[in-house]
């Protein structure tokens, strides 16, 4: 400001000459008592400005760091705000009072806007410490105790981390303040926010008391070796049954055999080929692809003409020696019983030591209709297509609603919710919060079932709880050492945890078990390759997918880093259409990268793709 303007503000009732004299004396005292070499105030002609010494002030720190891209720095900015701008200073005469009112209002708008952004970002992944939200809330309400927008931001923050009780408390506090101070009620948008929070609130978690011996076994669980040697394990491949002559096989029968295979993969004494690959071999009839499965045992079957039975047999390969055969009734209402009998018999035949307790608990209270919805969900849950993914989730939820003790259904709901959250750009924390709840419920129902631990690990990764993600995946892999699906997911997570080479080894083992996999495998493999900066390999795996919608970010980044400008820009344009307003910072924030190695790769690739 000019000397005249400052003098008039500070001494508005004094003559101009006297005010300017007072200002000169004030500046002399400041220079005499200022302890730092860098001056607090600098003079430039008839103007005064803040000198380099002013950067030591809390206000300068707040203004400089409030635009930071680092969340922790912006949180620190909000914590610096202990009150209003210069709130202990007497405002003086009318001119200075007006100046203070204007500047304080501007300061509050900036801080409150920043605090709201911080609350949104720190709870973006449905995970934040309540104490951190409390502290930000205290700063906001200290500046403007009656500001409804601040209460609404706090309600939403608590809602995103699933603390419904605290969200209700904040809403009640707001209603009391508005009634006591203004005789009004909260605005419609605030009421709608509370309704949405309550609608997204997870259902109460099931409390399941495990048997003493199960708890003891879990406590004694050892970590699995980094990679088991598949060559030393007998391998079994299961194929869909042949339909009756002149009929088409109902897809639920294929899903029955697939679920048998997936459940058998929990055993450590033999390996099970992923059904996606064995079914592909059965559909094509290709002998070379059959040989590629390298199976020592084959499970084949057919629907018996003129009856509601399915005949199954277990043969040694090569040689076609039948070592076991049986028939089961396979009417839809009998599928659960048939499943349990088939699983039990095959396990007894192939394994010398079997986790009998886990298998018996798998269907403690079979409900045929629940199981049918579960299979219907898996029919839809093949590739990365958002509409089918949502329909699959609905089927899984129906199964879980019918059979509250169905751990597999709760785990499948969690998986569907997590993938839906990711494909929607990770902008809806309620989906991730609900996915976490479903994973915890699956563990509570059956701690011996790997699916709950598996999904808990995936969600912990996205919530940046890296230690929990690593621990839960080791738990899941111990319980289910030969699941191709789990190995692929674990490999993807290891890449995000900073060990993409170990992740690649697990991915290769998953492909060994499932050589003709669904799209989500190639998505995970492309992610691992991208973390290894093998951009050509990542692009190649994306090319194996039927639908590339889920990997547009990877394709844009990889082509950008390879300098394929035109192709990268095409993928960048598709990303902008799918996620309007997307920035490189959004993609960096979305990527759980424990070591932070990928930021430059992401920004460099997206810049070429036209996303800054």
Structure overview:
This protein has 612 residues and is α/β, with parallel strands linked by helices. It contains 29 helices and 7 strands. The protein has helices spanning 3-10, 16-33, 58-65, 71-80, 94-122, 130-143, 148-160, 164-182, 188-200, 212-219, 251-264, 275-284, 287-293, 335-350, 356-361, 368-380, 386-402, 407-423, 429-445, 450-462, 466-479, 484-496, 500-513, 519-531, 535-542, 552-561, 565-578, 584-590, 599-608, and strands at 41-44, 47-50, 235-238, 271-272, 297-303, 309-316, 321-329. The strands form 2 sheets. A 5-stranded mixed beta sheet has the order 4-3-5-6-7, with helices on both faces. Strand 5 (297-303) and strand 6 form a beta hairpin.
Topology:
Elements lengths: L2 H8 L5 H18 L7 E4 L2 E4 L7 H8 L5 H10 L13 H29 L7 H14 L4 H13 L3 H19 L5 H13 L11 H8 L15 E4 L12 H14 L6 E2 L2 H10 L2 H7 L3 E7 L5 E8 L4 E9 L5 H16 L5 H6 L6 H13 L5 H17 L4 H17 L5 H17 L4 H13 L3 H14 L4 H13 L3 H14 L5 H13 L3 H8 L9 H10 L3 H14 L5 H7 L8 H10 L4
Parallel strand pairs: 3-4, 3-5
Antiparallel strand pairs: 1-2, 5-6, 6-7
Helix pairs in contact: 1-2, 3-4, 4-5, 5-6, 5-7, 6-7, 7-8, 7-9, 11-14, 11-16, 12-13, 16-17, 17-18, 18-19, 18-20, 19-20, 20-21, 21-22, 22-23, 22-24, 23-24, 24-25, 25-26, 26-27, 26-29, 28-29
């Amino acid at each position: 400001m000019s000397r005249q303007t400052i003098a008039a503000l500070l001494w508005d009732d004094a003559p101009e000459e006297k005010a300017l004299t007072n200002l000169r004396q004030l500046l002399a005292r400041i220079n005499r008592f200022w302890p730092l070499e860098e001056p607090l105030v600098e003079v430039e002609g008839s103007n005064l400005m803040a000198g380099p010494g002013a950067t030591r002030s809390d206000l300068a720190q707040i203004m400089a760091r409030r635009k930071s891209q680092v969340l922790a720095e912006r949180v620190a900015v909000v914590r610096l705000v202990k009150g209003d701008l210069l709130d202990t200073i007497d405002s003086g005469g009318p001119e200075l009072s007006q100046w203070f009112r204007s500047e304080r209002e501007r300061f509050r708008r900036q801080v409150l806007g920043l605090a709201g952004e911080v609350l949104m970002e720190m709870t973006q992944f449905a995970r934040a410490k309540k104490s951190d939200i409390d502290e930000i809330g205290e700063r906001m309400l200290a500046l403007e105790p009656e500001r409804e927008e601040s209460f609404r931001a706090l309600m939403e923050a608590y809602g995103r981390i699933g603390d419904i009780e605290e969200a209700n408390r904040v809403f009640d506090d707001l209603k009391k303040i508005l009634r006591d101070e203004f005789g009004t009620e909260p605005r419609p948008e605030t009421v709608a926010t509370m309704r949405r929070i309550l609608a997204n609130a997870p259902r109460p978690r099931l409390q399941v008391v495990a048997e003493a011996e199960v708890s003891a076994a879990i406590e004694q669980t050892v970590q699995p070796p980094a990679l088991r040697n598949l060559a030393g394990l007998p391998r079994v491949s299961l194929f869909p049954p042949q339909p009756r002559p002149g009929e088409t096989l109902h897809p639920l029968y294929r899903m029955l055999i697939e679920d048998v295979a997936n459940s058998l993969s929990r055993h450590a004494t033999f390996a099970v080929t992923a059904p996606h690959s064995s079914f592909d071999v059965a559909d094509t009839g290709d002998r070379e692809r059959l040989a590629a499965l390298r199976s020592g045992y084959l499970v084949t079957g057919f629907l018996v003409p003129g009856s509601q039975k399915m005949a199954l047999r277990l043969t040694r390969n090569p040689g076609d020696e039948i070592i076991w055969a049986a028939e089961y009734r396979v009417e839809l209402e009998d599928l659960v019983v048939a499943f349990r009998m088939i699983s039990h018999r095959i396990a007894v035949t192939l394994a010398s030591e079997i986790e009998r307790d886990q298998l018996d608990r798998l269907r403690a209270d079979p409900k045929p209709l629940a199981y049918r919805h579960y299979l219907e969900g898996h029919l839809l849950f093949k590739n990365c297509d958002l509409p089918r993914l949502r329909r699959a989730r609905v089927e899984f939820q129906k199964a879980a609603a019918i059979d509250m003790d169905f751990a597999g259904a709760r785990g499948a709901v969690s998986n569907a919710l997590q993938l839906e959250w990711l494909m929607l750009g990770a902008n809806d924390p309620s989906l991730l919060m609900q996915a976490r709840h479903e994973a915890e419920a699956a563990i509570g129902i059956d701690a011996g079932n790997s699916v709950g631990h598996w999904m808990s690990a995936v969600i912990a990764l996205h919530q940046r709880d890296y230690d929990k993600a690593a621990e839960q995946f080791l738990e899941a892999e111990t319980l289910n050492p030969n699941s191709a699906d789990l190995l692929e997911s674990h490999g993807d997570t290891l890449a995000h945890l900073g060990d993409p080479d170990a992740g690649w080894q697990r991915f290769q083992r998953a492909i060994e078990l499932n050589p003709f996999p669904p799209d989500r495998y190639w998505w995970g493999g492309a992610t691992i390759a991208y973390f290894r900066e093998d951009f050509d390999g990542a692009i190649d795996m994306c090319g194996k997918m039927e639908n590339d919608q889920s990997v547009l970010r990877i394709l844009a980044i990889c082509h950008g880093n390879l300098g394929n400008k035109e192709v990268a820009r095409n993928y960048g344009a598709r990303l902008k259409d799918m996620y309007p307003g997307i920035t490189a910072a959004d993609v960096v924030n979305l990527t759980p990268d424990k070591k932070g190695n990928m930021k430059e790769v992401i920004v460099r690739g997206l810049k070429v793709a036209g996303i800054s």
